[in-house]
Amino acid sequence: MEHKVNSEKSSSELISKLEHPKNPIAIKYLNELTLKQRQDFFDSFDLILCDCDDVIWQTHHGLLPGSPEAIDYLKRQGKEVIYVTNNSLSPIDMLLKKFERFGIEVKKHEIVFPAQTICDYLKSIQFDGLIFCLTSEAFKSLLREAGFNLVDELVGYAENFQDFHPLINSDDPVKAVIIDTDLNLTVSKLIRAHGYLRKNPECLFIGGAGDTLNTVGGKDIIGPGTFMSILENTTQRKALVLGKPGVGLRDFIMDKHKIKNARRCLFIGDSIVSDIRFAKVCGFQSLLVLTGTTTPEDLKSKLTETDTPDYVSECLGDLNGFLS
Ligand SMILES: [Mg+2]
User: Which sequence positions are flagged as catalytic?
Assistant: First the structure.
């Protein structure tokens, strides 16, 4: 199967023509590096942090050809690889099976995703209170299995404020509100979350995936970061964001993976906002691949100084046999 290329024009052709007023540093196109530059690039990092969706595989089209071979090649060259995804929709066991099915060897602790990161954070602060979750069922199950208490699911339908009232008001002593991807998010859930955060200034406000837009089946849909912003704006509070591109996730990863020198890390992702911005927040080098949400045209129109990747490549598979 052909991997997705976002334009009929060669991306290298478009990238080489990139002239953005806020982008004085030229992006390096990986396939145009000389052998010496390739070697220097390869020698410049030890740890790779790799996004999954639209980098290793695509939700609707399965595995991106060449990805497992590229990862295997990187490991054989002595690079350590960990995976940083914003996707907490599936239980970790399903995700591990997906890696296995695609022939990629991975251990649980090598996958960083918001549900686990937030669970680890709550444990680290010995959190002991009721949690209200705007998340997937898999996310909630992970927290419950770790021993945390969650507010029961809300079920109801309202056509007037009288019926709406019990859906949005609660006396539950909630001490943490968590927002991540929730495909069943409703207005009443958002309003209830707002109420908990406004009523109790001590109530923790934690965010997972910070994507303002997600790409599903080639189309942009509103992402969880947009709903997180609604809560931030209406409560005048800032969420502790433990998914990409959150600063909270940076601190978590630096600590957990004992990263001393961020420039010796390479972040590989397909999203300018989630991946490249996160790499910049962390001080990592960054490689943007064009198998997902970013098109070659976006490189000309959407980059800002803080979002510009160090390198661009059409796909992760380009790294297979990179030095040969
Ligand atoms: Mg992605």
Answer: 51, 53
Cite the beta strand spans of the chain per DSSP E. 28-29, 47-50, 57-58, 62-63, 80-84, 111-112, 130-134, 149-150, 174-179, 204-207, 213-216, 219-222, 240-241, 265-269, 285-289, 311-313
pLDDT at 214: 85
Ligand 1 centroid distance, CA of 192 (Å): 30
Is 281 found in the same domain as 231?
no
Residue 251, annotated as binding a ligand: no
What distances in angstroms separate CA 251 from CA 1, 60, 67, 245, 299, one per listed residue? 39, 32, 28, 12, 28
Q: Provide the terminal-to-terminal Cα distance of the chain, rounded to the nearest Å.
A: 24
* Confidence (pLDDT) at 6: 42
Q: Give a yes or no: residue 95 inside a domain.
A: no
108 C-alpha vs ligand 1 centroid, how far in Å?
19
Contact (Cβ atoms closer than 8 angstroms) between residue 53 and residue 67? no
CA of 26 to the centre of ligand 1 (A): 23
Amino acid identity at 223: G
Say whether both 233 and 138 belong to one domain: yes
On whether the CB atoms of residues 299 and 314 are closer than 8 A, the answer is: no
270 known member of a binding site = yes
Which segments of the chain have a pLDDT < 50? 1-24
pLDDT given at position 89: 95
Domain-embedded: residue 257:
no
Amino acid occupying residue 26 = A
The DSSP code sequence of 234-269 is HHT---EE-STT-HHHHHHHHHHTT-S-GGGEEEEE
Specify the pLDDT at position 307. Answer: 85
Phi, psi of 29 (to 5 degrees): -90, 120
Q: Is 128 annotated as a binding residue?
A: no
CATH for 270: 3.40.50.1000
Taking the C-alpha atoms of residue 271 and residue 300, their distance in angstroms, rounded to an integer, is: 15
Question: Ligand 1 center to residue 130 CA distance, Å?
Answer: 32
- Token couple for 84: 């940083």
